[in-house]
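Dear support,

I submitted the protein below through the web form. The confirmation email said the job was done, but the results page showed an empty box. After a refresh the structure appeared. I'm attaching both so you can tell me whether what I see now is the final result or a partial one.
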Amino acid sequence: MKAEYDLSKMKSRKNPYASKLKKSVTIRLSEDVISYFKEMADEKGVPYQSLINLYLRDCVARHRKIDISWQVKS
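What the results page shows now:
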């Protein structure tokens, strides 16, 4: 291994993973939801935040829509 390298002639290129970078957001989740994903994450051996991201990514890939219908009580 050389003591020094000359990088001045090195060509730059775009990061191929730049479009896949994650963005930090703050959301409020119920304690039972967090517990559910933490338990599942422990079983699978992955971080729970990664598991939540994978689940949401699956929802996006399958174009899942949620049906929220508010029923008015009489």
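Response: this is the final, complete result; the empty box was a page-load delay. The first helix runs from residue 31 to 44.
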